[in-house]
Design a protein that fits this description.
This protein folds into two domains: about 10-120, no CATH class; about 135-440, 3-Layer(aba) Sandwich (Rossmann fold), CATH 3.40.50. The protein is built from 18 helices and eleven strands. It has helices at about 10-20, 50-60, 65-70, 80-90, 100-115, 135-150, 150-160, 175-190, 210-220, 230-240, 280-290, 315-320, 330-340, 350-365, 370-375, 375-395, 420, 425-440, and strands spanning about 30-35, 40, 45-50, 75, 200-205, 220-225, 250, 265-270, 290-305, 340-350, 400-410. It has a seven-stranded mixed beta sheet with strand order 7-6-5-8-9-11-10, with helices on both faces. A four-stranded mixed beta sheet has the order 2-1-3-4. It holds the Pfam family CMAS. Belongs to the CFA/CMAS family. It comes from Solirubrobacter phytolaccae.
Amino acid sequence: MQLVRAQRPEIASAVRRTLAGVNLPALPVTLRFWDGSVLEGGAPVVEVRGPEAIAYVLRSPNQIGLARAWVTGAVDVPDDRDLEAILSLRGSFRIDLSKLDIARLGAAAVRIAGPALLRRAPVPAIEAPRAGRLHSLTRDKAAIQHHYDVSNRFYELVLGPSMVYSCAYFAYPGESLEAAQARKLDRICRKLRLAPGERLLDIGCGWGSLLIHAAREYGVHGVGVTLSEAQAALARERVAKAGLSDRIEIRVQDYREITDGPFDKVSSVGMYEHVGRGELEHYTAAVHELLAPGGLFLNHGIARLHSDPPAADTFIYRYVFPDGELSPVTDVMTAMEGSGFEVRDVESLREHYPLTLRRWVANLAANRDAATAEVGEQRARVWRLYMLGSALGFEEGDVTVYQVLSARDGAPHGLPLQRVEALRAPACERTVRTRERRGGEVPAHTNGVPHR
């Protein structure tokens, strides 16, 4: 739909007159309209670039309308500092309009921007399809491919050379992302007590970074599964380049389709969020069946902390993680215990995730032109908004991220008496420290645990 641009000057004045009789709180932002007029409010500036913005919000006066206006560029906030200030208001600024108020605003919008507003504005092409039974194999694969099969090069630009798309583990706030991601991978290997010859299953293996680290530094044989064809292709290339093709297999496969257990250890990093709250028991039961008695299972995932379950239709669901759902960590632990696991260790990494996300936001900003060339303007805008908003969510305690280590019943788990001993891995420690020195990073200790 091509909307006719309004020729009347001073749109801000018309909006001001319309809002005078509507029960609205003080405007926390300043609006700059497409004719150059400005409606003064709070310090952050929002650019309303055309009547299309009004059309989206008029048709969907909720988060989806605003999301569509943002994705298409009809609404923009060019400065990241302004965008962060606006996102920080999301919990305090509420609009409660009566049906009469909505009708008045709609009529005024038509007067300002023309009758074309009465027609439905086009839905952005990158909005996720939502067809089929929720969390069926087919729908889950479509949801994963929507997010991950966009461009491996795009993810390289955002994530950096580690190609790790989950929370890093920082020794100090100014540490490099690469060093922190290497520390995270090693921490997972230590918690799992990986040993040469063991068989490791990595559910949601991404681009293979954890498996490569585990095979190279701990001598395991690994199987990684992902539903993303693009991820699998690059993961296999990276495995081959590392000379580990004889020890690592990458599959395009759902965890529910794996039949060649048992595995000695199982990791799942940043994957369970795609499982769904109603599927947690099935997920942990499936892992239990794939794991040898006494084997260890580490689940690393985002969890709701104080926030309520989100509405069924949000920006994140439509544009970022279709069908993704977050659960309190207690739900994850309950599901584990109900499936025959004993929870052995729980660690919160909440403060580490905003540090990670802000590195990704900076990478996207530094590589904006190249990233946009890879995935298009709309998707680049989605990632900018979602990563910055997510950083604030972790900083404010709306959400968090946990590593939960559990042991399968049926045999001794072999974990040491002291937690510090569970994180010791002298052979790998030398390698990690050497790499950090070469990068100019020499922390006093590794993984937050002193070593004798």
